[in-house]
Specification:
By secondary structure, this protein is mostly helical. The chain contains 16 helices and no strands. Helix 2 runs antiparallel to helix 3.
């Protein structure tokens, strides 16, 4: 998340340190600890948007939409050119069923993303930062909401946003291959997901995706494994990563992996033990357990009733 540091107008050493601690807590899914660090960040640098952005993001992850909207709105007031503040606030509005506000923030996020990319390219034409890369990150997050959010309204709104966003999304495989090497995991995640969605048309991406199986971020590895299955039916390469994913604490990763393993059917039999162990765990998202059971049934050849 190197781009987040640009939210400081004049980086404050102590505030930056607090933010990094908060970001580390977010990576561990300890949202309350993250919020306490972002509170400290705000105390150190109340004139900067970074602490408000971080705290708003943590509250969004907890499902506390009203508090998240308040903090993200303050982040926007302090740094109105940051596309990500608008994007995450749009997710909060989506979660509350505020369709008009959600659509307005998403549109503004895309507009700002394009403006930032144009400005960066004017300064450094040799760089590969583009609005398409920002769009891919947004697209990946929307796909997760459309497929997996527990609320029917959120899924419907995300699906509608995807249909609008995909009109602007990059269609060329070379652009996606470039994005696989981006420094931001969100963009690598989105690129791998988009390549998988392209199916056999992305055959030329297989060598690069095999390398991405070694990415340091489990979500990126998971999307690469999913893509290898969808593009080239690479069972042997994908299975170890998918089995690893169903053992993660991140429920969303478990759900995505279970869905892919279920699509593989009987050829995913080596994953049965890990799926069974995962099914015996408790989940906040009830649909995860349903997805695990469906995967086990499909692998065993049981036809769902």
């Amino acid at each position: 998340m190197q781009w987040l540091k640009s939210l400081f107008k004049k980086p404050d050493k102590d505030a930056t340190a607090c933010f990094e601690e908060g970001r580390s807590a977010l990576d561990r899914h300890d949202f309350d600890l993250a919020i306490s660090w972002f509170n400290a960040c705000i105390r150190q640098a109340p004139q900067d948007s970074l602490g408000f952005f971080g705290r708003g993001f943590a509250q969004l992850k907890k499902g506390e939409f009203d508090q998240a909207i308040a903090d993200l709105s303050e982040a926007i007031r302090l740094r109105p050119e940051n596309a990500y503040s608008y994007y995450y606030r749009s997710l909060c509005y989506s979660g509350k069923g505020r369709q008009t506000l959600e659509a307005a923030d998403l549109e503004r996020a895309l507009q700002l993303g394009a403006e930032v990319a144009d400005a960066e390219n004017e300064k450094s034409p040799e760089k590969t930062t583009t609005a398409d890369e920002i769009i891919m990150a947004l697209r990946a997050a929307l796909h997760e909401a459309a497929e997996h959010d527990m609320d029917n309204t959120v899924r419907a709104l995300a699906g509608k946003a995807i249909s609008q966003l995909d009109q602007q999304a990059p269609s060329q495989i070379p652009a996606l291959l470039t994005a696989l090497r981006h420094s931001e995991p969100e963009i690598r995640f989105g690129a791998a997901q988009a390549l998988g969605d392209a199916g056999k048309a992305a055959q030329s991406a297989v060598p690069a995706l095999l390398l991405v199986l070694q990415d340091r971020h489990p979500g990126v590895r998971l999307q690469a494994a999913r893509a290898l299955w969808l593009i080239d039916r690479q069972v042997e390469a994908a299975l170890p990563v998918l089995i690893e994913a169903v053992q993660q604490d991140d429920e969303l990763l478990v759900w995505i992996a279970a869905d892919c393993l279920g699509e593989m059917g009987p050829c995913a039999q080596p994953a049965q033990s890990a799926l069974g162990a995962a099914w015996n765990r408790d989940y906040e998202i009830s649909h995860v357990k349903t997805g695990l059971k469906l995967a086990l049934d499909r692998i065993s050849g049981v036809t769902p009733v």
